[in-house]
């Protein structure tokens, strides 16, 4: 009978007799199942909210179109018609929806979706007063407040691995059976390796089962490449943690020291190291917050002719084709002045916002330098990217909103600066939001897997060297 068959059969019997390990496994399965439910519940709420908001705005649009048929001989009919036809009114009362719909795997790793709005209701007011709720933080903070499946795998899976593996060798020492194993025809190093392999296969099976259940809950929209990428990342992360435990075991410490060392590594890799890296790369964040605070307030200007003409002249420097030959005041003059003021102020604000987005990208780039010493954050980032909940998608969403808002501004202001009323044709040609979110490239995924697997292999080699030295000394 082969060694792995003997070891696996014995380890399975021991596992079934151990109430502690069975309890740990059942608890992990229960927490994993709840996390799947929680993630899909949160995404379901978001989808319901998007449908509700979309339906409300569509009904509002129909009301505006019906207003062109209103009887203007009545006060109510005249009010409805003017609200739809006057660009000075429609620019701030007629709203548009810009949404970031969840990707197929979003329920498994909520990522940024719980930190930032996934939709905006926009009009021709200043964009940043409508959308900028504060500076965008580095995804380092992740979604630790959400009990999604990614949280279970990144934070709790290592604890399960520790509980199953920390005493693989020290227990034999404590029970006095180590000498018996050393007299076996099989090298002790191989016996310990097979014990670890049994536990690794058991944990990988749990990861596969929980992930498969989550995939089924995602529905038909899930692509095979996404699910395979998810599993590969988790398998690599699991292998890395077993390599860490194998290395700790190789020092042949007693059970207590093994437990303390394992928990200490967990604390360092999941709490201390991410916090330290965050401090290193988050410089200047408070200064950005103070500079951007003013962009979140509504804009006001004096309702005086001089102020309006100044705003219009500034506006025409950007859009000279709109400058009329006749500068005499029209019924829309003051409305044009305020719209011109909003646009020029937004163009000034865009410089600061672009600096913010650039700073976020720079922080992301700097964080990537520490992937080897922060595998938990790296794994979370890969899972977020596969799930479409990472910071790159959030930034792309913001950029798509900026492009869309320019179209929204001109929807009503094109008629306003032409000194004409809006028509049904204008509403029929209203802009529609287009957003093609980025996907995780195969190169980035393979690089992430290479880093996780490479770290695990290096630790295994180190552990193998420790075992060789230790067993020679015992002999």
TrEMBL record:
Q: Does the keyword Oxidoreductase apply?
A: no
Which keywords does UniProt give here? Membrane, Transmembrane, Transmembrane helix
* Top-rank taxon, per record: Bacteria
Q: Where are the transmembrane segments?
A: 21-40, 149-169, 200-222, 228-251, 263-282, 440-462
InterPro entries of this UniProt entry?
DUF3526
For the keyword Nucleotidyltransferase, the answer is no
Q: What is this protein called?
A: ABC-2 type transport system permease protein
UniProt organism field: Pedobacter nutrimenti
């Amino acid at each position: 009978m082969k060694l792995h068959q003997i070891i696996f059969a014995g380890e399975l019997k021991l596992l079934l007799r151990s109430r502690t390990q069975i309890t740990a496994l059942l608890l992990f399965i229960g927490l994993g199942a709840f996390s799947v439910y929680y993630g899909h519940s949160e995404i379901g709420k978001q989808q319901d909210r998007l449908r509700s908001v979309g339906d409300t705005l569509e009904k509002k649009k129909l009301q505006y179109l019906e207003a062109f048929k209103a009887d203007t001989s009545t006060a109510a009919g005249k009010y409805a018609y003017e609200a739809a036809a006057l660009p000075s009114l429609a620019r701030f009362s007629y709203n548009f929806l810009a949404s970031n719909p969840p990707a197929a795997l979003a329920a498994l790793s909520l990522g940024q979706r719980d930190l930032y709005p996934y939709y905006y209701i926009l009009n021709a007011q200043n964009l940043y007063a409508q959308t900028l709720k504060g500076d965008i933080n580095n995804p380092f903070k992740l979604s630790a407040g959400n009990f999604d499946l990614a949280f279970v795998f990144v934070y709790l899976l290592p604890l399960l691995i520790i509980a199953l593996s920390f005493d693989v060798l020290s227990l034999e020492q404590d029970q006095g059976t180590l000498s018996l194993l050393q007299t076996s025809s099989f090298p002790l190093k191989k016996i310990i390796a097979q014990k670890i392999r049994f536990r690794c296969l058991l944990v990988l099976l749990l990861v596969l089962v929980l992930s498969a259940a989550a995939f089924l809950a995602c529905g038909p929209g899930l692509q095979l490449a996404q699910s395979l990428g998810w599993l590969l990342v988790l398998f690599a992360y699991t292998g890395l943690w077993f390599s860490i435990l194998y290395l700790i075991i190789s020092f042949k410490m007693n059970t207590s020291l093994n437990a303390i060392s394992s928990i200490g590594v967990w604390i360092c890799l999941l709490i201390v190291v991410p916090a330290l890296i965050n401090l290193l790369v988050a410089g200047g964040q408070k200064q950005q917050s103070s500079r951007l605070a003013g962009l979140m307030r509504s804009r006001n200007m004096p309702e005086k002719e001089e102020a309006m003409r100044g705003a219009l002249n500034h506006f025409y420097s950007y859009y000279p084709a709109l400058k009329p030959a006749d500068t005499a005041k029209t019924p829309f003059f003051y409305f044009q002045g305020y719209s011109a003021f909003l646009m020029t102020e937004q163009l000034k604000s865009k410089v600061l916002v672009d600096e913010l987005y650039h700073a976020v990208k720079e922080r992301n780039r700097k964080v990537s330098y520490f992937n080897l010493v922060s595998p938990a954050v790296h794994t979370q980032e890969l899972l977020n990217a596969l799930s479409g909940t990472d910071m790159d998608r959030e930034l792309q969403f913001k950029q798509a909103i900026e492009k869309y808002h320019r179209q929204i501004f001109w929807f009503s202001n094109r008629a306003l600066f032409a000194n004409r009323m809006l028509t049904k044709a204008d509403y029929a040609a209203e802009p529609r939001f287009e957003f093609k979110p980025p996907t995780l490239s195969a190169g980035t995924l393979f690089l992430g897997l290479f880093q996780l697997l490479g770290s695990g292999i290096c630790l295994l080699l180190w552990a193998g060297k420790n075992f060789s030295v230790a067993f020679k000394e015992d002999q």
